[in-house]
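Hi there,

I know you've been waiting on this one. I reran it after we fixed the sequence typo, so this is the corrected version. Both the input and the resulting structure follow.
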Amino acid sequence: MGELLTIQMPYEAEENRVMDNRIFRNIVEGINDLIYICSPDHRILYMNPSLVEKIGREAVGEYCYAALCDQDSICPWCVNENGRKEGAQVCELINPRDDLVYHVSSIPITNDDGTINKASIMHDITERRSIEERLLQEKQISEGVVNGLPGIFVFMDENLRPICWNRNFEDVSGYMADELAGMKMTDFFSGWERELFEDKIREVKDRGVSSMELRLSGKDGDLTPFSIRNSTVSVNDSKYVILSGNDLVERHEAERVLHQLSRAVEQSPCSIVITDTEGTIEYVNDRFCQVTGYSLEETIGRNPRILKSGNTGSEDYRKLWETIAAGGEWRGEFHNRKKSGETYWEFATISPIKNADDVITHFLAVKEDITERKKIEWELHKSKAELLVKHEQLKSYIQQVEKTKKEWENTMDCIGDIVILADRENRIKRCNKSLVELTGLTLKEITGKEWRGLIAECGMPIPPSCAQGMELCHKNSGRWYVYNSNPFTDRTSNEVTGTVITLHDNTVVKQFNSELEKAYSDLKATQAKVVQQEKMASIGQLAAGVAHEINNPMGFISSNLGTLAKYLDRLNDFIQAQADLIEMVTDEGASAGLREKRKALKLDYILEDGRELIKESQDGAERVRSIVKNLKSFSRVDEAECKHADINECIVSTINIVWNELKYKASLIKELGDIPLTRCHPQQINQVIMNLLVNASHAIEKQGEITVRTWHDDGSIYISVTDTGCGMSPEVVNRIFEPFFTTKDVGKGTGLGLSITYDIIKSHNGEITVESEPGKGTTFAVQLPVVDGKYISDRGKTADA
């Protein structure tokens, strides 16, 4: 630590003033401390040579804070105005200009005109700090525990009489300045310590310097131990002795404090690591061992690389070394690995430790385990990201709601109906454009009015007991409106907060109502006629098929019977000839002739072929019988009532009836499942199946495939008819069951076939659906509930048509 030089000049006689000034100048200009004097406005009035040499120029007239500290304004080096009047100021600072530590003492100097200047002495104590490097290192570790210890300074003549001294000497000795002026330095020691002091003074006169440890006796008799250093200086051929001493009490106290700080470091919740400049670990505290799992013996002498997990990038390590090697402080995070292999996060502050020569000798790392904090930060970051996403979603929803609201308001304004939203007191909250047009008022004028009174003013009174769907007449325009109201429920509170009133303009409906009723009657009559015509067309189609089917087997029968007649004539001739020859045959020749005759008449072939012809005639006859039977079954003139029926039998009989319509366009696949009987109208079911099969055939242009399937599932019978025809577009599918809708050319269809089919299925409490894809085909699926169903155990499988 540096000493505070308080220069007090005892003026005992005027004749000594010149001598004293000379001594003062020699001291000021010969001392290595930096001395300067400033005016009240902080301009430099005087600089000693050491200060000139230090800053490299004469700076008289400049601001002290600019010349000495490179600052733009008053800095801690400057003494405030109160300090100028109150007395000496002492401080210890690091000059930002050269980063050296100075002990600064400043005293006020009052001029003849009453102004007060400031004299300051800057004593470089940096070198002294390096005397005890261990203390310096401990100081840096403990964040500047002790910068230096103040001491005493005494400037004596060769008779050891104090000429000038610092304030600390006065404080230690307990004597005032006027008392010290008449004393000798030996008066402050007693016994052997006085003798030792005198010996050291003689030694300093011979060698120029001496040092010792003595107890300085104060006015009150207290003994204070000091480490004293003596040196000599010559001024105008006169020798003077300079005594400087450090209070060992303070050093002992500092050592005690440093020991406490060392204990604090050992017990710190942070990990402390000290390495040399190569990164070799020289010290770790207990917390480091607890966190990493490495013992002190396993750590000392090794490199912190033992903690590397590979999760921290090499670029981070490179920047770390660049920073601390340049003398800077590095802060950052490591993702390290413990001895057990478990990874953990830590926040580290790494800074260099420098000696008195400002050379980096070690590196200090203070590290905090932040694993739990990182987990919390990650959770917070995740929550923040989720909140941001939800915020954006909410923002988007709000924008969409606003857009939808505007679209809905525009939509409400486009409809012709009057729409009113009223509160519980029947005051209008919102309405559409139609009400504005009806009343002739602005939306602002309408809002808040009682809706019944407003509409009554327009010529359309609405009674309080007005029922839903009631028609009201607007007298001014003669238009008719249908009244309806519904409660408006707030979805947030689920409470009814108002009423929605709609007035539908029903004038056109009212005008055409009678015409619609007449048209409806005509339509019903027409539909009945068309249904009958459709039925007759179906019967005609069936009759043509039956005629065609009957003609074919009848042709077989006629042809075969004619041929059989010829064969029988030839057989008769043969038999007759045989009879004649038998009578005459008496030898071998006759027998040979008989055989020749038999061969010529192809009697054997005729007999064999006759059998085949007879068989074909029988098949044809059976075919005619079957067709007639199926025709009878299809028409079912005697079965119009509801009865148990086999749906598979209905399908087979209908296929036989319409087979002539199908066989030239499609191959038929039947997949008839085992289904129960159900109560139905068989004749109507036949008509449904026929319509579906005929439509499937018409959908196939050239050659295709029709598949008929039945199955039973969950109390219902299912029928599907699938074709590989042209298919239908979605628009056509949506209208396929509408009466009079057809895709056939004019005159080729009434458009009632599928409509009738739909009505028949609905009357049986069933469902019919359709799936179709243009270019791929169509599937009609019918679902009929089983009514009073039962199985016939001896019913066999149905053969393909």
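Quick highlight: Confidence is low (pLDDT under 50) at residues 1-13, 79-85, 141-149, 793-801.

Best,
R. S.
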